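agent> Task received from the user: take the single chain below, predict its 3D structure, and emit structure tokens. No templates, no multimer pairing.
agent> Plan: (1) validate residues, (2) run structure prediction, (3) serialize to tokens, (4) report one or two observations.
agent> Step 1 OK, no nonstandard residues flagged.
tool_call: predict_structure(input=
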Amino acid sequence: MAAKVVASVLNSSASAAQGGCYHTRTITDTLGRDWKIMRDSSIHEQTASGYANDEHKVEFVTPPLKYVDIELLQNIVRDLKIAGAMVNSSCGIHIHVDGANHTPQSLRRLINFMTARQDLIYEALEIGGSAMSIIIPPDIMVLIYTPIFQRER
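)
tool_result: status=success, residues=153
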């Protein structure tokens, strides 16, 4: 069902579920970008009606997006919610940032910016409260601090 909603917003169609445990459905937009709906066994089933199965435990994966795509993403999320999509404590969000044009200082500013505004982000996305926090993977920390250590040698 989620793949049909995304396909509708993108004026496209969803592929048949690909084999394997993820049953990935791909929706290609008019720009040739692939959006995916795939099963995620770490999600706890939940629906408004109380009935749920593996088809309800899905992850929405976007292609790399730009600022101009925010409205499109909002429309997809809005339509998924109208169709009955919901989140619970087993769900999460993660955002990948292209680091190609960043310096250690700009990545530090980005992390500080996101950390200072995480409550606002969670409120806007309706995904949880203060119990959630931004986790900075060790490889990001290495990317930020390695050049500094190299200069000190």
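agent> Step 4: summary for the user.
The chain has two domains: 1-91, 94-153.
agent> Done.
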